[in-house]
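> example.struct
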């Protein structure tokens, strides 16, 4: 069953437990992670938690729990849920205090939800997805996995209005990433993605795909690329915790490659799935 946790208590997933003065609710003052469990086993939890604590440090937030303590709590919650394939969402905020922009002295709030994993259909994977290229209007610190996602939401919604699965963001003439994904292109057998910067989130699935490429001895380069390079690529794919490795077959109504998921994309997804076992 789906369940939730808030500040030391296990609660129902729909229970009204977040106080009005909770700073995540009022300011989006916090950070978060989404961790996928496969058959009860967390995938790259260590990397997710390391990123969580780096994000917290970047916004000067003391989470109040050691990483190992948080890991144990998450494992216990998933076990209690009885679910095998899980999307675990965790967020830490600056706590519960009267509304004031200045940092409060209260402890952080921690909330966790455990829900059945959101699986993409086999039809979607077999056909690939459409994306829309849109201006990257986010802030300057996208490497922080912040609760402040309004620009991402607006971009994703605009892409949806255009009949697309994802918004691919463009900043100063170069692709950065998707609204909730990292973006890769393949040209003449070489896999390419934008290098990490303050405008790029260090995706955990991005790390896994790089490892798979190295294991398969596939050329892999971290180098910026333009929209035109994306349009001319042999293959394009997205990565994220919930999408895994997902082929893009159309971008701005232009066909990518032969219009079908590419062989390297499928090979990388197969290798990724093997790592989850």
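> example.seq
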């Amino acid at each position: 069953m789906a369940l939730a946790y808030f500040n030391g208590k296990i609660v129902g997933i729909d229970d009204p437990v977040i106080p009005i003065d909770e700073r995540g609710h009022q300011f989006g003052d916090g950070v978060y992670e989404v961790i996928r469990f496969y058959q009860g086993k967390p995938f790259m939890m260590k990397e997710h938690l390391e990123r969580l604590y780096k994000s917290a440090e970047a916004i000067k937030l003391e989470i109040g729990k050691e990483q190992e303590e948080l890991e144990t709590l998450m494992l216990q919650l998933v076990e209690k849920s009885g679910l095998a394939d899980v999307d675990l969402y965790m967020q830490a905020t600056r706590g519960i205090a009267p509304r004031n922009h200045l940092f409060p002295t209260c402890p952080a709030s921690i909330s966790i939800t455990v829900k059945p994993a959101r699986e993409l259909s086999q039809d979607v994977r077999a056909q690939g997805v459409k994306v829309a290229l849109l201006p990257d209007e986010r802030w300057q610190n996208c490497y922080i996995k912040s609760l402040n996602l309004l620009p991402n939401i607006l971009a994703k919604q605009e892409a949806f209005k255009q009949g697309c699965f994802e918004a691919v963001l463009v900043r100063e003439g170069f692709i950065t990433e998707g609204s909730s994904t990292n973006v890769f292109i393949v040209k003449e057998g070489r896999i390419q993605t934008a290098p990490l910067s303050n405008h790029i989130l260090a995706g955990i699935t991005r790390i896994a795909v790089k490892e798979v490429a190295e294991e398969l001895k596939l050329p892999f380069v971290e180098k910026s690329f333009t929209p035109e390079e994306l349009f001319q690529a042999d293959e394009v794919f997205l990565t994220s915790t919930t999408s895994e490795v997902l082929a893009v077959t159309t971008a701005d109504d232009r066909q990518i490659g032969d219009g079908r998921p590419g062989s390297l994309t499928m090979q990388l997804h197969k290798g990724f799935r093997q790592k989850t076992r």
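> remarks
The longest strand covers residues 30-38.
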